[in-house]
Write a structure and sequence with these properties.
Length: 276
């Protein structure tokens, strides 16, 4: 049982006083805003990263981060996750296999994550992971069309309660090949939302079954790299991709869609096959 003096994990939503102005009229009111708190990730007692995140689904977030960043190779290499609240944020302790921990120590990466993006403290250009493992041929979704992608996006808004309350939350969702959206995770950071989704999927057989990822953001190279590392065959974003995202997706055989809005979408990979 939690001691009485131990902090509680912060709520995802906060109420703050505001002054509303509309057409010259001003009034005191309150508004609901999304929580953004430091979440420290440690492996076998050694601090590794501090991410600014929304304090929901933190076990899924930690597991997804460990998988998508290559700290562990399979969920079985994570032996336990302990989430503890602290006055300054949340501490998430992961116990991982010795082999994974030894590999992690040799990476020499110290990261400070933000809700924006960057290369997360990589020490040199040579340390950038720009050669993701190709998506296995048996997992590729060569028949995926924009119609199925847009069908999944049409279901996204109703699965985003935190964003509905605040307008400040990204989401990552998992869809079946027919466009049926089966899971959605939210976070203030787009990378965090994807890690939460990966961690949720890793608890079951979903990662080994056909499907694709949708995100309510642009498609950066980090998102492509995370998906490729898990062998996920397709990524669709509501906004634009970057040039490096397109390059990585093309080289590893990941289908990449952008500008998935309303009735249209743009595919940046596999264009010859899409026009057959």
């Amino acid at each position: 049982m939690k001691p009485d003096d131990m902090p509680e994990t912060p709520d995802a939503l906060c109420t703050v006083p505001v002054v509303r102005s509309q057409r010259g009229d001003r009034c005191a009111a309150s508004d609901t805003v999304l929580a953004e708190v430091p979440v420290a990730l440690s492996f076998n007692g050694v601090a590794h990263a501090v991410m600014m995140a929304t304090p929901t689904d933190l076990e899924a977030f930690a597991l997804g981060f460990a998988l998508s960043e290559g700290v562990i190779e399979t969920p079985a290499q994570c032996y336990g996750i302990d989430v503890q609240a602290h006055p300054r944020g949340v501490d998430v302790q992961l116990q991982v296999a010795t082999r994974a921990f030894e590999r992690l120590k040799h990476q020499r990466r110290t990261m400070e994550g933000r809700s924006g993006c960057g290369v997360c403290g990589v020490e040199s250009l040579a340390a950038l992971d720009l050669d993701p493992t190709p998506v296995p041929a048996e997992r590729r979704l060569d028949g995926l069309q924009a119609e199925q992608v847009l069908q999944a996006f049409a279901q996204l808004a109703e699965r985003q309660p935190l964003n509905a309350a605040t307008g400040a939350c990204h989401a990552a969702g998992w869809s079946l090949p027919d466009g049926s959206l089966v899971d959605v995770l939210e976070d203030v950071g787009r990378h965090n939302a994807l890690d939460k989704l990966i961690g949720r999927l890793a608890h079951g057989p979903a990662l080994q079954r056909p499907g694709f990822v949708i995100v309510s953001s642009r498609a950066s190279y980090e998102l492509v790299r995370k998906c490729a590392r898990l062998g996920l065959p397709a990524l669709a974003a509501i906004s634009a991709p970057t040039s490096l995202a397109v390059d990585l997706a093309t080289r590893c055989g990941l289908r990449l869609f952008g500008f998935c809005r309303d009735e249209g979408a743009v595919e940046y990979t596999g264009t010859a096959a899409a026009l057959r």
